[in-house]
Please model this.
Amino acid sequence: MNSSSLMEKIVALCKRRGFIFPGSEIYGGITGFWDYGPLGVELKNNIKKEWWKSMVYKRSDVVGIDAAIIMNPEVWAKSGHLGAFADPLVECKICHKRFRSDREEEKDKHLKEHLGKSDVWTEAKQFNLLTEVFLGVTEPKEKAYLRGEITQGVFVDFENVVSSSRIKIPFGIAQIGKAFRNEITPGNFTFRSREFEQMELEFFVKPQDQEGDKWFEYWKNERMKWYLSLGMKKESLRFRVHADKERAHYAKKAEDIEYNAPFGWSELEGIHHRGDWDLSAHKLTYKEEDGEEFTPWVIETSGGVDRSALFFLVDAYYEDDKRVVLKLHPKLAPVKVAVFPLLANKENLISLAKDVYKSLKENIDGMIMFDDRGNIGKRYYAQDEIGTPFCVTVDFQSLEDKAVTVRDRDTAKQERIKIENLYKYLLEKLS
Ligand code: ATP
Model:
């Protein structure tokens, strides 16, 4: 299958089965905005849940926050985002790199990467990534910005978090939330959107090279392990070190975790050594118990929830001549278990299947589906296509032996399990 047809299939599947829809579609859509449907929201919530588990619950050196999307505009002046993004920029239509429009030498060099193709540049624009909003009801209204990254909320809350919790350096503050960027060329489905969600950790360490380097390496590896632990294929992922001139204005060191997408290797998550850029900019320091005061350095892991969702879907997509399967990790699968009565018109079968369905809904944390439409083969394929790891069928024998057939999505193997043991059996398999 070629890459563009894989992307087309994913986009079509997402729409058909309720993962992702174009935003405001009944009014012709709006470029760069997407809505998550009943299955998409489950996938996204599962990703966020797993991230929070691994970054906050499993650790004793990280706490979470949820900062406001709109902050005092001074934050963006101090963080450098108002200045750094105010140049006239052109963007390469092929790889979306942006260049100052007056930097002819850099642009010419870049064209060579695309074998001298011309017409790759968008028009030059006075480009500010931040989305403006106007607050208040009387003119002149107060100008503010939707946050362009969730990061600044952590710095703004730094003192409050330190004084209200018992954390000591080295420690981290984790956050998941929406960010907004006026991207010039949104595209590649949800990959480059104007509204998206980030999941970030800012980890504060003592301001020393060896501390910074040690934690930078540590977090790079932790984050890579997280994607692998949720089933992403090793060969689909790689690290890419940023060249000096490519690094953001705040970064001492930066590496991306890239995914081998159908449209080429693409950034999934950035690991940044931000030095003391932010805390210094906001004039914030940290005081040790012995009174020593300093400006911590910050190691950041900054991932995209939407890009994760997209690449987990791409990575899990499998088809053969019989069926399409999303081989999603059970922890990420939107529907955990589907329950079927073998036949739809037999009262006693339906009643037992409904009892099984209700008991699974009570005992398993996640979506359980009931389906009695069409024949059993079609129901299996419909569940395979949305990545449901297990299907449970209640048949005539179940009425006698109080057992059901459990079918595994990936192997299509079937096992007979006693109803009284069913939820424990499934819980074990789903974890
Ligand atoms: P790119 O180079 O692709 O524009 P970036 O380097 O500007 O990305 P960061 O500022 O490091 O991205 O943001 C951290 C993460 O937020 C990215 O790794 C990505 O997962 C996500 N992200 C950034 N911009 C977008 C966007 N426009 N749409 C969806 N996700 C995004």
Q: What stands out?
A: DSSP finds 14 helices and 23 strands in the chain. The chain has two domains: 3-67+147-315, 335-430. The mean pLDDT is 93. The first strand starts at residue 20 and ends at 22.
